[in-house]
Design brief:
The complex is a heterodimer of chains A (113) and B (112). Chain A is mainly beta and 113 residues long. Helix content of chain A is 0%, strand content 52%. Chain B is 0% helix and 53% strand. The chains are: A mainly beta (113), B mainly beta (112). Chains A and B meet through β6, β10 and β11 of A and β4, β5 and β9 of B.
């Protein structure tokens, strides 16, 4: 079945540091890949996505590239801010009658001033 | 545009009680899902639906029932609540597997 493995953390960084959160996946067919973010006390919201190999998703300074050869979708940001403190989830979905959205366990990021 | 609406936001149940968590979306999405979120476990899929009249089990379906009589609504029923069902529950909907899923604000359930 489908699965997502991501760096569990927690990750603690100083403001303006570089961020990488690793994510690898196992899936049949051609999944779509997502990063979701959850701020304290809230539901999940989409951060970025990529739907085919070599696509790069980007939003709010975050980037991730769909690497089919390494089955990876690592999240990066060049300079984090205190407001980026949240839990980040890597996810994949497969479609048709077998639609499922599968999540990694989440990575708690804390950014200190 | 309301998006995905979950009710209630908080609930305390006694062991053995039953209840229904409500989920409604107004985006005409075919795909809807229920997840539970527990510390250190991420989000685990309980049940999902790819359209009205079609439901299937996810990773952790035991103790939960669902039905999908309309495109808009996807209620989750706890038949006989147990302390192990204490969790935060999220409902989500999506247009397709290539599109983002929209999440409700969650229901925090405590079973005592």
């Amino acid at each position: 079945g489908n699965s997502v493995t991501q760096m569990e953390g927690p990750v603690t960084l100083s403001e303006e540091a570089f961020l990488t959160i690793n994510c690898t996946y196992t899936a049949t067919g051609y999944p779509s890949l997502f990063w979701y973010v959850q701020y304290p006390g809230e539901g999940l919201q989409l951060l970025l996505k990529a739907t085919k190999a070599d696509d790069k998703g980007s939003n709010k300074g975050f980037e991730a590239t769909y690497r089919k050869e390494t089955t990876s979708f690592h999240l990066e940001k060049g300079s984090v801010q205190v407001s980026d403190s949240a839990v980040y989830f890597c996810a994949l979905s497969t479609g048709g009658s077998n639609y499922k959205l599968t999540f990694g366990k989440g990575t708690l990021l804390t950014v200190n001033p | 545009n309301a998006g995905v609406t979950q009710t209630p936001k908080f609930q305390v149940l006694k062991t053995g009680q039953s209840m229904t968590l409500q989920c409604a979306q107004d985006m005409n999405h075919e795909y809807m899902s229920w997840y539970r979120q527990d510390p250190g476990m991420g989000l685990r899929l309980i049940h999902y639906s790819v359209g009205a009249g079609i439901t299937d089990q996810g990773e952790v379906p035991n103790g939960y029932n669902v039905s999908r009589s309309t495109t808009e609504d996807f209620p989750l029923r706890l038949l006989s609540a147990a302390p192990s069902q204490t969790s935060v529950y999220f409902c989500a909907s999506s247009y397709s597997h290539r599109h983002e899923a929209f999440f409700g604000q969650g229901t925090r359930l405590t079973v005592v």
